[in-house]
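Troubleshooting: if your tokenizer reports a length mismatch, compare your output against this known-good record of 99 residues.
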Amino acid sequence: MKKIVMALATTVLMASPAFAGDAAAGKVRSAMCAACHGAAGVSAIPMYPNLAGQKEAYIVKQLKAFKAGTRKDPVMSAMAAPLSDTDIANLAAHYSSLK
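Known-good structure output:
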């Protein structure tokens, strides 16, 4: 029962507008991401994922996981470490708005 309640609570939180960031501010902040993920969120390097059109809540979750160390990657952990929650929300809004 606890797992069901936690899953439901997580789903509600992930669907909430609390993740809504400022896409224009995210575009400015995304300059650091462009080297690997491409200026328009489409990577020219096969080993790096495309971020354009990715779901906003997913980007938030992954960046927070890199920052917290629960998802490990030496490059992304270092890139996510200095990001504030506002930066993360803005980046997610920017990349999710791209086609």
